[in-house]
Amino acid sequence: MTTFVLSSLFHVDRLSLTMMGLVAFIGVCVGSFAYRYLKGDSHYQSFFIWLALLISSVMLLVSADHLLLLLVAWCVSNGLLVRLIMYKTSWRAAKAAGLLATKNFGVGAVGVAAAFGLFYATTGQTSIQAVIQQPTLSPALLLALVLLLIGAMTQSAIWPFHRWLLSSLNSPTPVSAIMHAGLINGGGFLLARFAPLYLQSPVLLTAIVVIGFCAALLGTLWKLLQPDVKRMLACSTMGQMGFMFVQCGLGLFPAAVAHLVWHGMFKAYLFLSSGSAAKEKRVDQAYPPTPLAFMAALVCGLAGSFSFAVSSGKVWLAGDTTFVLVVVAFLTASQFALPILQANPLRMLPGTLVGTGLFGLVYGGSVQLISWFMAPMELMQPQALNGFHVAGLLTLTLAWLSRLFLRKEKKEAPDWMLKGYVTALNASQPHPDTVTTHRNHYQYQ
C-alpha cells in the first residue's frame, strides 16, 4: 500500500534528478556561507530551519507527480521564500518586500491552480505523467498551458512580473543567493515538466520566445544602469531567465535546463561574493573598439560558436531553431574576446582564439551532457525558424552593436537619449516602500 501511494504521488525522472542535484548543491553552498556570515545574528538558528524546510519543499516540488501535491509544494516553497525575504520582520522595507512577493506569487498560484483544474477537468487525470501524454491539445488544454505560462512567468520574474525580484534585495545575502539561484528556476522547471504539451503548439512556443526575448533585452539593458552590485545582479537574473524562456520556446528544453544549472551555480557564487566586488580589478573596456580589434573579436566569435556547435552536437548553420543558440554563442564569444584583444589585437589573437574555442567547447559540452542525460524524455525538439526568431536575433545583435559603438564624447547627449535613459532607469527601480533611505531605518534586532 505504501509503495502504491508513493508511486501515485511521486515520479523521479531525469529532470527531477537534475533539479534535485542543483537544489542540493546550492543549498549546501548557501548553508556553508550562512554558517559564518550570520554568526551572532539573533535569528541564526531560525534561518537554518527555514532553509532546510525550503529545500525540502523544493525537493517535493520537483519530484511530485500528483497535480495537487505539486500545487501545494509550489505554494509552500514560495511561502517559505517570502518568510526568508522578511527575515527581519520588524524592518519595514523587508516586510514590504515580502508583501510584494506574496502578491506576485499569489497571482502565479492562481494561474497554476486554474491550469491544474483544467487539466483534471479535461483529462480526468491527477497524474502529471498521464496529463502530459495527451496526444492532442483541446482548447481547454491550450488555455491551461497559457495559465501555466503565467505562473512560470511570475516565478521567474519575467517582465511584467519582475518588480518583486528587484524589490527583494534587502534580504540577507544567503537569502538572495538561494532565491536567485534556486527558487527563481521554478518557472523553467514548470515549463520543462509540461514540455510534451507545449511542443504540440508551435504558436505558443513562439509566444514564449517573444516573451523571453523581451525579458532578456530589458534585463540586460537595466543591468547596465544600476548603481550597486546586488541590483545589477537582480537585473541580470531577469535577463538570464528571459533567455531560458527563449530556449524553451525554441523547443530546446534540455538546453534551457542546462542554462538553469549553470546560471544557478554562477549566480549563487556572484551573490555570495558580492561583498568583495568593490575590491575586484576591472578591465577598461575602452569603447568603441578599434576596427581591427572588432574584426578579431568576430573571428574569435566564429571559433567559439563553431566549437559550441560541435561539442553540443548541433549543425553550425542549421535551418531550425538551434541556429538561434549558435548565433547567441557567437555574440557571447565575441564579447568575451573583445576586452582581451583591444590592447594588441594581432598579438593576443592566437591565445584568444584558443580561449574562445575552449569556452564554446565547455558550454556546448554541458548542453550536450544534459541533453544526453534527458534524451529518454525526448524534450529536445528544434522548431522551424520563423520571422519572430529572426527578429529576436536581429534585435539582440543591434543592441550589442549599439552598446559597443553608440558612445558619444559630447558633453550633452540628445534629448531622446536622455529621456530614454531616465525612463529605463525608473522602470528598473524597486518599489519605493522596499527601499531604506536612511541608515537609522535599518532594523538589526
UniProtKB/TrEMBL annotation:
**Keywords, sorted A to Z:** Membrane, Transmembrane, Transmembrane helix
- Cite the GO molecular-function annotations of the record: NADH dehydrogenase (ubiquinone) activity; NADH dehydrogenase activity
Question: Does the UniProt entry include the keyword Transcription regulation?
Answer: no
Question: Is Membrane a UniProt keyword of this protein?
Answer: yes
One biological-process term from Gene Ontology? ATP synthesis coupled electron transport
Tell me which domain of life the UniProt entry assigns to the organism this sequence originates from.
Bacteria
> Where does the signal peptide begin and end?
none
Domain NADH:quinone oxidoreductase/Mrp antiporter transmembrane: start-end pairs: 64-281
Q: How does this chain sit within the bilayer?
A: Multi-pass membrane protein
A Pfam family of the record is: Proton_antipo_M
Entry's transmembrane regions = 15-35, 47-62, 98-120, 140-161, 173-192, 204-225, 232-254, 290-310, 322-341, 353-375, 387-406
What subcellular locations does the record give?
Endomembrane system; Membrane
Q: What protein is this chain from?
A: Proton-conducting membrane transporter
Species: Hymenobacter lutimineralis
